[in-house]
Amino acid sequence: MVRLPVLSRKARLAAIAAVVAVPAVALPIAFAGRDSGLPGTGGANDGSAYAFPATPDQIPDTPVRVNQVGYLPDGPKRATVISDAQQPLRWELKDKAGKVVASGASEPRGMDDSSGQNTHVVDFSSYRGTGNTYTLEVDGKASLPFDLDPKAYQQLGIDSLSFFYPQRSGIEISNDIAPGYGRKAGHTADTPNGGDTKVPCAPGSCDYTLDVTGGWYDAGDHGKYVVNGGISVAQLMSSYERSPKAAQARALHIPETGGKTPDVLDEARWELDFLLKMQVPDGEQLAGMAHHKIHDVAWTGLPTDPAADPQQRQLRPPSTAATLNLAAAAAQGARVFAQYDKAYSEKLLGAAKKAYAAAKAHPTMYAPDSDGVGGGAYGDANVSDEFYWAAAELYITTGDKQYAGDVSDSTVHKADVFDRAFDWQNTAALGRLDLATIDNKLPDRERVRESVVAGADRYLKIVSEQAYGQAYAPNGGYDWASNAQMLNNLAVVAAAFDLTGEHKYRDGVLSGMDYLFGRNALNQSYVTGYGEKASKNQHSRWYAHQLDPKLPNPPRGTLAGGPNSQLQDEVASAQLRGCKPQMCYIDDIKSWSTNELTINWNSALAYVSTFVADQT
């Protein structure tokens, strides 16, 4: 396992070799001519953030699928085995010395429709020991190694949040803070395209320019999108709100660390400031509305450093959805920053109220699905959920009756918002979760809380029914960003634990996480640097080691989008045709439909991983 430096790298590779007999291949990471600082490669920053240990490029398959990162000693511990056997199979749990510490028989589960595999489930939850480099052997076949460690997710909570720093636009990324990832500031005035300091609108949509520097690059491209930034920054702030003391103690790898403001809020502020800049200025026809997005007028190729982007930047027209994202995120920001920076809190609240009023005045300005040249379209023609989310955040922050009325009067308020995973296009669940978990005096708040628990129960049932324990069972194929959708389902289960204290919800989150770290049909960890077989070639223009050895892979703690049955890109459609849903994934930089990285997928990972990290 590559996450924790409990053993030396040499010892760990020896442990892997004993199980799967595979040679170690060094993974060079260097950016802008810097040394990588990788553990095990002679760098000076052994064990530092972002970089991750050298991993084998090829690992022979094993039918015994486990969470390659590890399990909490007091949590559920399950594995899935691929086998045509119809009778239970004997299993043995072995410690790093090869001693059998637990044994039993598997439960045959038959054909798994999502993978097309015949499966058994092994449950070794009763074993409560701790240690590293355990293996599970079933019918004479061994799993990849894993740990039993109460701190198994502590580092992931930090890494998944520290992911956002090298995604920042408009600032030099320090190699001292992010070894191996230092780069020049992207999209500043001295970059080839003039950067984001004076960005014009799309022709015919406005006659002004805006300074929209800062914020996070949305994904593997250089675009910045208000509707995706809204859910992302909200989930970072929610990770603070659900456990302020834990968030205050969690030091991230960012320039602002060590100040009076918790690091996660310092990172959130980088995006909130950008969102404020996207608001149409006073005096203009659509004052208070927010531009939907800002990106290049044409797509750039792979790889392209942000500081070398030659394409003209352009503001796309305002939209109701973007305006409500700004209102919701700024309203939440106003309350979380209130005790740390009163003036900034007031600024955020003023922007939120202005945006909400503007959206009410222009309720049907929809971003089209056709606007996808040079950046993602992010079209959305139903904004009832965004209105609900924004009203909820404004009510929780202000207590004003007008916002309470808008919440209660919304058609969304009594609807089942957990009938599908929430995402940037379906945001009602964000409002529902905060209404349930953050103190407020909404008249029917008890019903709201019960609806969250009912949603969590639905997801727990899905976890229990799936041979691989994933909190996801769509009709038909897997959707784009299936991994993030699973995590957002788990966020609902985590909220139910916070509301009830019932450990079945905590255990459900832990079981659901197993899928992401290797207990799946591909024996694949989808988080860079976590697990022996982990994604490392996610689609990105600057984390592009697969195309240029001088460039880094994505930083440790980066989530890959995951299986996507639609196979929209050329690599996936050529190599995965006819795949079963769980099998529709390839760790290739050009497979943007299965293997992209994005801020809203990592924000979901950050929320759930910090919840799990806080359980100890």
UniProtKB/TrEMBL annotation:
Residues 153-608 form the Glycoside hydrolase family domain. Coiled coil: none annotated. It catalyses: Endohydrolysis of (1->4)-beta-D-glucosidic linkages in cellulose, lichenin and cereal beta-D-glucans. It comes from the Bacteria. Its EC number is 3.2.1.4. Pfam families: CelD_N, Glyco_hydro_9. Residues 62-142 form the Cellulase Ig-like domain. The active site is at H539, D587, E596. Residues 1-26 form the signal peptide. Keywords: Carbohydrate metabolism, Cellulose degradation, Glycosidase, Hydrolase, Polysaccharide degradation, Signal. Belongs to the glycosyl hydrolase 9 (cellulase E) family. This is Endoglucanase.
